[in-house]
C-alpha cells in the first residue's frame, strides 16, 4: 500500500495545508456572494425609486423628451412581458420571476468568477424589481402590472429592471462563449480559474512524483549506465579453506570451464598450447 501511494505521488498523511487551501478558497466565494448582493441592492433601489418618480410625475400616453427623440419618458402599465407578450398569463410570469430569484440565490453559492457575480447580481435585481410590481401593484398580488416609462426608437418601453435583465443576459452569453463556468473554471479541461490560477497543485505534484519513480526505474534498468547493486549470496563464487576458487551453484558455464583448466603447482592456470597445421586462417 505504501509503494502504491508513492508511485501515485500521493502523501500518506494529509497535511494541514489542505485545510488552509479550503479556507482560502471559501473566503473568495463569500466575497463573491457578497458582491452579488452589493450589485443587486443599488440596482433594485434605483428601479423602485424611478418607478415611483414616473408614477408621480408622468401621465400615460403623454411622452416627454429626455434626450431629444432618442430617449423619451412614456408611462405605461404592462401586465405581460416585453412587446406586450403574455398579457393574459400574468401568473405564469410571476412564477417565472420567483423561480429566477431562487435559482440565483442557490447558484451564487458556487461562485468563483467575478463576471458571473456581476451577471447574477444584475439578474437578481431585475427579477426582484419586476416581481415587486407583480406582487404589490394593482390589480392584485401575483397579477400586478409592471411600470414601464423609458422608450427608445423602435424598441418597447422598459424600466431599470428590464435593463438589468438584458445586461445580465449579455454577460452570461459572453461568459458562456468564453467557456467560463460559474465556479470560475474553464470548459477546456484545465482546472485553472477564471484568473488563470491553478487549483491545489496536486496534479503537478503527482506528475513530479511519477516522474521521479520513472527516473529511478530507468536508472536501475540495463544499459542505463547505473549498475544495480547486488549483494553476494550463498551461490556466489568464493574461496575454500585452502585458498582455491570454489564455484558456487550459480556460476556460468565459462566460469566452470575456467575452473576446470589445467593448473601448475602454484595453482595458476597454465596457458593453452596453440594448435597449428589446421589449414585455416586465424
Describe it for me?
This protein is mainly α and about 280 residues long. The chain has a domain at about 25-190. About 45% of the residues lie in helices and about 10% in strands. The protein contains seven helices and five strands. The strands form two sheets. The chain has a three-stranded antiparallel beta sheet with strand order 1-2-3. Strands 4-5 form a two-stranded antiparallel sheet. Helix 3 (about 90-105) runs antiparallel to helix 4 and helix 4 packs antiparallel against helix 5. The longest helix has about 40 residues, at about 15-55.
Concise summary:
With 282 residues, the chain is mainly α.
Distinctive features:
282 residues, mainly alpha, two-stranded antiparallel sheet, 8% strand, disordered C terminus
Q: How would you spell out the order of helices and strands?
A: HHEEHHEHHEEH
Strand content: 5-15%
Oligomeric state = single chain
Shape: globular
Strand order in the sheet with the most strands: 1-2-3
Topology:
Blueprint: H1 2-8, H2 17-57, E1 64-67, E2 71-78, H3 90-107, H4 114-136, E3 146-151, H5 160-178, H6 202-219, E4 238-239, E5 245-246, H7 253-259
Antiparallel strand pairs: 1-2, 2-3, 4-5
